[in-house]
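Working notes for the structural subgroup meeting. M.R. asked for a predicted model of this chain before we commit to crystallization trials. I am recording the input and output together here so anyone reviewing the notebook later can reproduce the run.

Input as submitted:
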Amino acid sequence: MITNTMPRLLLWTPRILCILFALSISIFAADVFGEGYDVWHTILALLIHLIPTFVILAVLIASWRWPWVGGIVYIALGVFYMYWFWGKFNWMAYTFIAGPLFITGILFLISWRNLPAPQKVRR
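Returned structure, recorded in token form:
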């Protein structure tokens, strides 16, 4: 019974963490509603603010089948965020954004590493 728990935990933890992260960064898009735009400009601004969420979810879709993709891309996104925005925010912003990306990427790589051999290479 215990032997089945760890692989399932390694399989689902990065996926659930990624979904929670996408939901949490989507909250930042809500600031467009207080800007006083008309309906069409509000929709456009909302879509623009949700681009990071769409990227996170697109990578999650690819990672569902190929966990190594999520491992590499989420770590790369964390590095990109740290490089691009370094010095612009308080250290908590880097922890809140880049931290979950690094953790999710590492968990996807661990998940991929622990897959049985036939599941690692799918065609």
